[in-house]
Amino acid sequence: MKRTLGRMTFATLVCSSVLFASAMTGAFAAPKAAWTDNSVPSLKQTYKDYFDSIGIACEYKPWNRNFGELQSAAVREGLARHAHSVTMGNDFKPDTIFGITWGQTKAQIAGEKFTASNGKTIEVPVLNGFARMDQILQACKDSGLLMRGHVLTWHSQTPEAFFAKGYDPKIKGDKITNLVDKETMTARHEWYIKTVLEHVAEWEKANNGGKHIIWAWDVVNEAAADDAQRTYTGSGQNYLRGQTKDKDKAPKDGGSRWYQIYGDDEFIVNAFRFANAYAPQDVVLCYNDYNEYMDYNGGFKTSAILYLADKVRSAPAVQVAGKSVKPRIDVIGMQSHVGETFPNITGYERALKRFLDAGFDVHITEFDIAAKSAESAAKLYGDYFAMLKNYGRKYQGANKVTNVTLWGISNQESWIAQNGKQYPLLFDREGTSYYPNGSFEAVISAAK
Questions:
Q1: How many degrees, rounded to 5, is the angle at CA 219 between CA 59 and CA 249?
Q2: What is the pTM of this model?
Q3: Whole-angstrom distance, CA of residue 106 vs CA of residue 108
Q4: Mind spelling out the 3-state secondary structure of 221-247?
């Protein structure tokens, strides 16, 4: 459904004040309109003059429910009405794509070899997640939805086997005692990115006429340290995850196996170089991080992200798959898990402008709000979207906010909802139906 509703409000079929008041208190009062009802403005149509795309994160079939999100045709109808694209919350992360059996640590060897661009020949593991990936791509195609791919390189939700000799990790305390060397890991890294990107391209060619379902990828996620130092000169360049207080820790405690193998940012540059070599040139490549507006209180993460992104952008070309390839980074992803007081609008806007002024477009990749009341959530949503739209298409700067993605559909499924104690998202779910709440109305009003 692609109907432009313009300035239409809920009053067309329902009393907006009744719906707004009921949503603000977390209760529902009849009459109410579901998110697919014609009386409810389309989020993506409301913001079509401000952002290139609106996104909503979802799961294919959440483990804790007996009905799916993207798996459900009814839910896909709502997603397609309000968003151009989706981001899979977990289904495209490395651990899901590896698909190692629950309770196992060793990856199955495929019986194949791969010779990387650095000359290293490696055995490769089996990737068991492609069947589910294909189902998700088909669900997007069926509903006319595009996707931001999330994520290729991450310290978390990546099998420990990927970093270990023989894909069989020996773990003592927080450490893997049989980590591979850098050359082997670089070969594995190239193989993984190549294999995933080529699988997607082959699916798109066979099933979608070569047109992209995945139009952007988070190439590297959360590689900057929360407690990054202000300056990065000499040997004390403490700005990477796993380089500061989290050194040698397990990923679940904030450590990074990537850093433990490399000891520097080489793997990040490699990731963007491999992505540029194997992704279509019109697919957007993104660096994504949280607390991206934190440049005070003892940590200088905004500065660290900018430093890292500039190192990637300025790195030289090397031979990848027989051709000279530079790393390509197109976008900074601001996850934007904001609270009632942190970082506040001023602090957020300051960081956003720094990314834009440094010559990067920005994606708001995972927006939600940790608000303790529906009233507070609605006000904050209105304030943030009123600010963000100023940096969209109508912004006079060379770089802009081109995508805004919400991290989930409903308050009931949000990772920060705390069993109804917080109000992070724009919709509420009753049974298998979704309804716009006060935060949704505030976001629609902010566009006017």
A1: 85
A2: 0.91
A3: 7
A4: ECCECCCCCCCCCCCCCCCECCCCCCC
Name the nearest CA neighbour of 145 among 48, 205, 75, 65.
75
How far, in Å, CA of 364 to CA of 276, rounded?
22
Query: What pLDDT sits at residue 421?
Result: 87
Residue 77 tokens read as 């109808």
CA geometry: angle at 104 spanning 112 and 108, to 5°? Answer: 5
Adjacent-strand bridge partners of 309: none
Q: What are phi and psi of 90, to 5 degrees?
A: -135, -25
pLDDT tens string 321-358: 999 999 999 999 999 999 999 999 999 999 999 999 99
For Cα atoms 209, 214, 217, give the angle at the middle one, nearest 5 degrees: 150
Report how far residue 131's alpha carbon sits from residue 158's, in angstroms, rounded to the nearest whole number: 18
Q: Which amino acid, one-letter code, is at 67? A: F
Count CB neighbours of 421 within 10 A: 10
Residue 43 exposure: Cα atoms within 13 Å on the Cβ side: 29
Contact call for residues 295 and 355 (beta carbons, < 8 A)? no
Spatial separation of the C-alpha atoms in residues 197 and 130, rounded to whole Å = 11
Cα separation, 286 vs 153, whole angstroms: 11
